[in-house]
Amino acid sequence: xxxxxxxxxxxxxCGGGDDKGTGGDNGKDAIKVGMVTDAGTIDDKSFNQGTxxxxxxxxxxLGIQEKYLKPAGxxxxxxxxxxxxxxxxxxxxIVLPGFKFxxxxxxxxxxxxxxxxxxxxxxxxxxxxxxxxxxxxVAVFFAEHExxxxxxxxxxxxxxxxxxxxxxxxxxPAVQKFNWGFQQGVKYANDNLGTKLNIKAENVLYQGSFDNxxxxxxxxxxxYDRGVxxxxxxxxxxxxxxxxxxxxxxxxxxxxxxxxxDSDQYxxxxxxxxxxxxxxxxxKKLDNVTFDLIQREINGEFPGGDTLTFDAKNDGIGLPAxxxxxxxxxxxKVKEVFExxxxxxxxxxxxxxxxxx
Length: 357
Known about the structure:
With 357 residues, this protein is α/β, with parallel strands linked by helices. 37% of the residues lie in helices and 21% in strands. The protein is built from 9 helices and 14 strands. The chain has helices at residues 47-62, 76-88, 102-111, 144-159, 173-192, 213-225, 237-251, 286-298, 328-343; strands at residues 32-36, 65-69, 93-97, 116-120, 137-142, 161-168, 196-206, 230-234, 257-262, 270-272, 275-276, 278-284, 307-310, 317-318. The strands form 3 sheets. The protein has a 6-stranded parallel beta sheet, with helices on both faces. A 6-stranded mixed beta sheet has the order 7-6-8-9-12-14, with helices on both faces. Strand 8, helix 7 (237-251) and strand 9 form a beta-alpha-beta unit. Helix 1 packs parallel to helix 8 and helix 2 packs parallel to helix 3 (102-111). The radius of gyration is 20 Å and the shape is globular.
């Protein structure tokens, strides 16, 4: 079954808003899984939350104990401090969501040799960007460009015409690939599927952070005022600001849309009963991958030393199982496109080339 139809378990994030996280109580022999949050919070509706949901699924289905810690800042020293706090509390399977953990994991994998580390969207290195993935570490990457491509095709097919925009957080590869994939998907639909959705350079930009909610709202307002109909956000909390702006306009009767990112953001876009301004979401199956690696550790099959890539071929990316704002015709066409990516018939570039930004 195609990944865009495969159900993705999304559990309500919990654990409280305090910096000390939460701990489960599933018996003395339960594996203890810890997570340190990146910039943003455990309920950022995006990368942190998607990762945490995989840990919560493992709590429910595998009986693990869970805990997250939120650092005071985003420096290597602060990350290492919280990783050490988890280790000292017996949480020796530690998940780190984001490239900012690269140098901290590089040091931690030697300092805590009997711990296991999973870093998402990054490779451990000493600051020279030369990957060093030790036997107690797994580095995970996703084909964001393929996910963005599917979202671009779906957006163009559903809206048929109009103006699209993109708001990114930090200008880093994972965010850039979402952008470039989206542009390629829109172009593919325009060239092959009879759509006329346009993207202008002035409507493709990066805010520079993942936590400036107010800036996200301001940028979205400016784009909508320029006539943009739909904005793809890959920006964490900045994207939350864009969603809030779109919801305000939706309540006022404007026909504007957001394309979500990382996880299914449909619920976050609700503004009037069951109406949502989330057209669809370009997903990375963060929850599935996190859950799977925890399960592999429990089974004695932790792939230490490996760098894993999740893409269309292994169902690591895609659109949500349910897309209430997409027609059956759009969903069917996107499924066909997904299968063509999976088979290699459609190749999505992971580089900028002639694309914006």
